[in-house]
Target: Nucleoid-associated protein RM520_06950
Amino acid sequence: MFGDLMGMMGKLKETQAKVGETKKRLDTVMVDEASTDGLLKVTLTANRQIKAITIDDSLLEDKEQLEDYIILTINKAIEKATKVNETELAAVAKEGMPNIPGMDSLFK
Model:
């Protein structure tokens, strides 16, 4: 009984370490998003940290339009990055979980 418990604790620590490594790796995974017309481009990491914003000069003439572009494009980029992040972390977590009936549906 205690051997199983110790084994599960070891597996949990191993999984935590893998999750930490995955989070670090996701800092290097870049997600690009652009407005539909390509006038504004945003790059962020899969951990949702903005790395670059490129704005076409034509957008600088209309502050309100530029603000709308920034909000829409960044929100789309964050949504994309979140999906990558969640998929990667769920895969690592699922890999390290003991086989408990009914638990596998949590990581789909």
In short: The chain is about 55% helix and 15% strand. The CA atoms of residues 8 and 40 lie 48 Å apart. The two ends are 30 Å apart (CA to CA). The longest strand covers residues 40-45.
